[in-house]
From TrEMBL:
Pfam families: MFS_1 (PF07690)
Source species, domain of life: Bacteria
Family: Belongs to the major facilitator superfamily.
GO cellular component terms given for this protein: membrane
UniProt protein name: MFS transporter
Bilayer topology term: Multi-pass membrane protein
Parts of the chain that traverse the membrane: 21-46, 58-79, 91-111, 117-136, 157-174, 180-200, 262-283, 290-312, 318-341, 353-377, 383-406
Keyword Transmembrane helix part of the UniProt annotation: yes
GO molecular function list: transmembrane transporter activity
Assigned keywords, A-Z: Membrane, Transmembrane, Transmembrane helix, Transport
Length: 412
């Protein structure tokens, strides 16, 4: 056999891996457009219309389906992985995508004035998106070799920040220049386009007869996964609890929606994607533990600077926006690439959708609790104590995260 012929299988596997990563990036970007609208754009729009911060905090109820998806993850995974034949990942994503598109049209019709109805629709859409995410995450774990986990997570987190930038930045610009309905319908069209690469991709090859039955019981029986749940809860609290009220804070600082949209869009795109790619390379070079600890220390510093700037008063709104962008896009992208690489390493390939969902569901539960609490704390105590407390939490979490990751290294 010639050297060229011998090299073709490896080259084919590499090409297949990069095609899989690209398709996953498109899907994660599309899903994250929804999060950008719900968690970043909608709070800014509602704050501009005078809604109090504790009411805006209710928006984090949209995270509820992402937390509850643990309950139906095993059923979805058993359907996705039939006893024989190819997986059904694409079918699940297609059905859930259609429901999401219908929900976005309903949101466009309802308008932000009926924010209770918009909130209810987004919660329903989140159920569909969370179900699709089970299939997508399972597909990623079972098709990507360990060597590609860092880049796969860079695509996942980078796609999340790209979608978030589009959903918060471009969406706010369109709301300001056109209207809510036109911006929401444009987001629906973009979401549909971004699903296409995954839907036309080749299904994962069938391993033959599947004898393992995915279940929550099998997941909780693994000490490695239980340790991962503690790591997820700690890390998410330290990284996310301090950024929940940053969009309304910038509105209160004097930024209009169009300016805020441009900063979130262009800035979030450049910073989020850049740091996600940096995270992928850093995880490959130094490992997830080192990158996670570094991101926590950076987050503590960024939030402390924000607390100081707000406490002193008179700071430039653009300076505050830059610090907020570094915290919510750059540092979080860097850290979550590493955290999700740990998730992939922990997940059992025989039921990857269940295991990854448990870990990601912990992320959603902690995010929701923190989002609801952040609105209350900021409303009653002010932005400075809220940001200072979040900075302290990130600083305390760094050594604990390092310890949890060390204790999680061994294979069972």
């Amino acid at each position: 056999m010639s050297e060229a012929a011998a090299g073709r299988p490896a080259l084919s596997r590499r090409n297949s891996a990069w095609l899989t990563i690209a398709a996953l990036a498109g899907l994660y970007t599309g899903q994250s457009i929804l999060g950008g609208i719900a968690f970043l754009a909608l709070p800014s729009v509602l704050r501009e219309r005078g809604l109090p911060l504790d009411a805006i905090g209710l928006i984090y109820l949209i995270s509820l389906p992402w937390a509850l998806k643990i309950a139906w993850s095993a059923a979805v995974e058993r359907y996705r992985l039939p006893p024989t034949g190819p997986t059904r990942s694409r079918l699940i994503v297609f059905a859930c995508g259609l429901f999401t598109l219908a929900g976005l049209v309903a949101v466009a019709i309802a308008g932000p004035e009926r924010w209770h109805l918009v909130l209810a629709i987004f919660i329903a859409v989140a159920f569909a998106a969370a179900t699709a995410d089970i299939a997508c995450d399972g597909h990623a774990v079972e098709t990507l070799a360990k060597a590609h986990h860092g880049w796969g997570n860079a695509a996942q987190v980078g796609g999340a920040y790209l979608g978030s930038a589009l959903g918060s930045g471009l969406f706010l610009v369109l709301v300001a220049r056109i209207d809510w309905a036109g911006a929401t319908l444009a987001a629906a069209g973009l979401f549909g386009l971004l699903m296409l690469p995954f839907l036309v991709s080749k299904p994962a090859p069938s391993p033959g007869l599947r004898t393992h039955q995915p279940s929550l019981k099998a997941a909780f029986a693994r000490p490695r996964l239980r340790s991962g749940l503690w790591l997820a809860a700690l890390y998410v609290a330290a990284q996310k609890w301090g950024v929940g009220m940053l969009p309304p804070m910038l509105v209160d600082a004097g930024l209009d929606l169009e300016t805020l949209g441009a900063i979130n869009g262009l800035g979030g795109l450049a910073v989020g994607l850049g740091f996600a790619l940096l995270g992928g390379g850093a995880v490959r070079l130094w490992g997830a533990r080192t990158v996670m600890v570094a991101a926590l220390l950076l987050q503590a510093g960024a939030l402390a600077l924000l607390a100081t700037a707000i406490g002193q008063g008179g700071s430039s709104p653009l300076l505050l926006a830059g610090l907020a962008l570094a915290s919510s896009s750059g540092i979080m992208a860097l850290g979550f690439v590493a955290l999700y690489a740990r998730f992939m390493a922990i997940a059992d390939p025989r039921q990857a959708g269940v295991d990854f969902t448990l870990l990601q569901g912990t992320d959603s539960i902690v995010s929701m609790v923190g989002g609801l609490g952040a609105g209350w704390v900021a409303q009653h105590f002010g932005y400075t104590p809220y940001l200072a407390g979040a900075a302290g939490l990130a600083l305390l979490a760094a050594p604990l995260a390092a310890w949890l990751t060390v204790s999680d290294r061994g294979e069972e």
